[in-house]
């Protein structure tokens, strides 16, 4: 009960409260009024235009600027720029305005280009020509001009222009086939049905449709159709999802259909589902924000110190107003506190470059360009599906290197989802192919061939498989979600179309024993029996499968008039609904097959009397006509019919392990990740798969917490006993099922909720692997959220291949979709998609590791080089009377982050491989060394900050020592303040660039080009900027300063000595710090400098690595 209430609550939340809408809309088919309508007033609905773009030509500039300046960093630099414009500051507004303009412009161009593509896509859809029936004629119209009530014609392989109710099909049985790959990613052929009793001549059809208001659930539709005929009572027909053709879906294997538009434009289900996924933020972003706050505090502290010392210094006699610099009357009349405030702002402007505005652009470019390396990786290419990896979100690249918990689906993820019928059990007898029958387990009671044939008929009839006829030259395939399995054409053999591989496996399993399903035509199912006789059954009702019921049924009628119900489903769903004495014969086989790793289904049947069928038929029809609570009413009727059944037997289907599944799981555990398997399968099957994948080892002790007659008090005792076990020195595996989990997460008493959750989490965190079986999709997300929000906020990753995995993929920090056989919905909702599970190993251990190291180095390096840049400017104030005199020229202030130092770190952050990919893949333990955001913790940050302070002090006082010699040129002239700043800036640029060169372990021609090219560009620019008289400059401070500086041998000597002294500590550190272990030197020498400091903080045991 708690699970169902939780499910309904979450469904309400996900659908945005659409369940509360009880109002409906009335649609007149073909805009024709009904006979009993006194006044025909057509309702107004939205047109069929689709708008997915964010901007127009008129609102792009204000809207985009508003969105960009909502970012704190951009808003901060805008304030600084405005202060420079308004207040008399020591630096030109260009120094802040140009970098900000560059950042805003690049981002605006990127977003504008993306929106242009959206406009182009919208126009292609809206201007597409479609055929509409008007007054008996076929008229071509643009798609955007379709109105609700129009009758639309769609031909094969065309996309439906809006949501349509199917009125007529070219197929004789009144069906059509549809693929919905663009909606939910599932490329299997779905069958849709025309509304019964509609006129063949649609021009003569007079009808109204009453249906629910638009809502985003793709699989839900409730409505009814009133068909009016002359001198007859209106006929009422129920409408459901099987009658609704969704916009974006494609017509297949059907020449032509006609449908009436019910939802158009932005009210179609596709448009209502068009919404971005919730923004996921990486741990690196959070670290950047924390570091920014620290540097903002440093900036404010510097401004406060300088402002205070300025007024302390000016309080001395003669300092405030010397004889050579008398104050004007306006200056004397200025309020002192206002003057102090403007001075504070001036110092803020002078030192604001300590906050690196260009870092955001560099990080964005690094993430965007870096994601291509995953897409281009040839190891991720799968020849079977002719596809490679896919990146849907580049913002989380570095998060791949920080994963602590992996949540994986079983079927299609750990296994291939390639089903093969292995054996079946009928009335206690085990049947395998090639054996007629074999007696096992001591059961000798059997009803002979009658029960065998009944079982095989059930397999042939209880499904939703479609037969695909092949032409004379067509190769037959079995198609499951768009994956075609080639097979030789045998006599009378057909291809099958199904939404699930299980169904095809069972139908083909029946073929092995002589019963062949021939297809469904006009509600008539045909099968061929062992005697090659054709049996025909009238399909009366299909009781659809759903994850809650975990079963499906069909009601058919034989030629002799008998009404039969066949049901198949999970044992936990079937056993309570059959006669208890029949269960024992089958249970042993089911449990043994599950232990062997097979997927099991139980099959039951029931003969319905005329009265029983009449009650069921009436209940089903009434429930299907209901506009409100239709699903609940249908399930109530299903449960009423599916009782008192007779158990016939069970099936066993094998789902083989994915290629290299065991090796991948072993590597992930070796990397320190905890793997949880979340599956809807039964416990024994899932447990067997976990052993095969080496998640559970032979020595692993399993703790099982499953629900049979478990109540809250017993659950509490189980938890307490488990808690004491989990502290012992022993590897444990934990198993829990969905029913028990619902009690843990939603106990009867809210007081116990937090206690149960904390105990459950404590047990799981002390186990090497956790298996959660019989899980509903929303429970999977619940588990992920619980771990994600636990103490320490561990980084979680979810991987799955089906629609039932989407909830946990969206919930986790990183979502991985596998391009499997259960459609592409998981792929479309994931952050990254890979063809096979085995590719996860390289994605995390190699790409994830490298991405994290690269971006961590990028962030720390940006803060370090800006601290080196601004610290000499701060120190200079102590020697210029706190006059806010800039140390560097405005051109240097502007171009330092944009041109001189940006490209080398960008190249490093894209190409660096501090450890080779082969070593990373061979030694999974290396992944642990960067775990828990190791390179962006406070201690490494402190190291980089101290390094920046040391080098900034060295730059300033080293050059000041040079200037203690009054004669620095051959002609006896002395250098001025701009020469002083230029020498400091030259040492700065060369030092921070060479520091990056020393950190680089993987050199490419690109690294050489940008590092040495940046230094060459700085020298060229300095000569060029100072060698020409620029007419647009009022003051040319650097005229011939750089050339004059380099004419001094003393300046050359100081520049070289200061660069060497700045880099010397790190060079000495690597020389003196000897690695331990016979093979550790190779790994040790491959680490960038920041790693070498980590052993001193006891967070980098990689130096002890010895394979």
UniProtKB/TrEMBL annotation:
Active site per database record: 409 (4-aspartylphosphate intermediate)
Domain P-type ATPase C-terminal intervals: 827-1074
Alphabetical list of InterPro entries matching this protein: ATPase_P-typ_cyto_dom_N, ATPase_P-typ_P_site, ATPase_P-typ_TM_dom_sf, ATPase_P-typ_transduc_dom_A_sf, ATPase_P-type_domA, HAD-like_sf, HAD_sf, P-type_ATPase_IV
Binding site for ATP: 409-411, 503, 545, 568, 599, 679-681, 774, 780, 804-805
One BP term from GO: phospholipid translocation
Domain P-type ATPase N-terminal: from-to ranges: 43-96
Cofactor entry: Mg(2+)
Protein residues bound to Mg(2+): 409, 411, 801, 805
Cell membrane among keywords: yes
Membrane topology classification: Multi-pass membrane protein
Residue spans crossing the bilayer: 290-313, 344-363, 891-911, 941-963, 978-997, 1009-1030, 1050-1071, 1083-1103
GO (cellular component) term, any one: plasma membrane
Similarity section: Belongs to the cation transport ATPase (P-type) (TC 3.A.3) family. Type IV subfamily.
Name of the protein this chain belongs to: Phospholipid-transporting ATPase
Source organism of this protein record: Cyprinus carpio
Lineage of producing organism: Eukaryota, Metazoa, Chordata, Craniata, Vertebrata
